[in-house]
Design the sequence.
């Protein structure tokens, strides 16, 4: 993923909302969310076999991955980062791994009680507990100050957006914002992007996920048509 929004309100009926936008080369093969791994649901990257976001419905946990910045690992020892969301969603923690085999990443673990965030820059691992409020994580990390133009534009709008009070409620302003809020793809603030590279490849927003986590369960909506609010389909509950 390239953008994750996490809203934490411990006193709300829906205490945690997570929205994610996945940006990738359009030619990279993948399949939509399903139970591609026992007990875990998420979209599957067919090139590396992992995922960008994994949900454990029984534990009401979600793991979400963003590529980070820092020192890349040597190709001969590199492991795909796509197994990390699966591990944290299944175990509720980041297990003891040889992180030197992974390129830099940001990894979110969320449940109805709150959210944790790990950062690996290729040399040092750090961990943060996200406090109540609305937060945005991008490829440069957890942007607390709005230095990123996208964060500066969208975070206050997500913070003002009304949240569902039940798992089957409409998404309201959350849906409008996560599908781009009408900004064109070329706007530097845009959440939904599309860039054509000189070699003809296209890098853009391929999918959007909306998750609501509560004591009653998980609502998981997904679309591979990122600017179309009407195109979301329900993944959970089935």
Sequence:
């Amino acid at each position: 993923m390239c953008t994750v929004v996490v809203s934490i309100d411990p006193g709300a009926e829906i205490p945690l909302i997570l929205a994610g936008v996945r940006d990738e080369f359009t030619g990279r093969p993948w399949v939509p969310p399903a139970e591609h791994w026992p007990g875990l649901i998420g979209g599957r990257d067919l090139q590396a076999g992992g995922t960008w976001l994994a949900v454990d419905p029984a534990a009401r946990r979600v793991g979400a991955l963003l590529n980070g910045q820092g020192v890349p690992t040597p190709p001969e020892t590199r492991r795909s980062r796509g197994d990390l969301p699966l591990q944290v969603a299944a175990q509720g923690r980041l297990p003891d791994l040889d992180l030197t085999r992974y390129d830099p990443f940001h990894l979110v673990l969320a449940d109805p009680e709150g959210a944790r965030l790990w950062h690996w820059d290729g040399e040092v691992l750090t961990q943060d507990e996200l406090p109540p409020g609305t937060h945005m994580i991008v490829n440069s990390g957890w942007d607390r100050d709005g230095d990123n133009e996208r964060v500066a534009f969208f975070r206050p709008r997500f913070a003002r957006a009304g949240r569902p009070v039940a798992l089957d409620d409409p998404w309201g302003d959350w849906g409008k914002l996560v599908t781009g809020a009408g900004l064109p793809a070329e706007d530097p603030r845009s959440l939904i992007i599309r860039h054509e590279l000189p070699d003809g490849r296209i890098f853009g927003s391929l999918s959007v996920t909306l998750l609501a986590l509560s004591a009653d369960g998980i609502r998981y909506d997904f679309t591979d048509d990122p600017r179309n609010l009407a195109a979301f389909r329900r993944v959970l509950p089935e």
Notes: Residues 3-227 form a domain with the Penicillin V Acylase; Chain A fold (CATH 3.60.60.10).
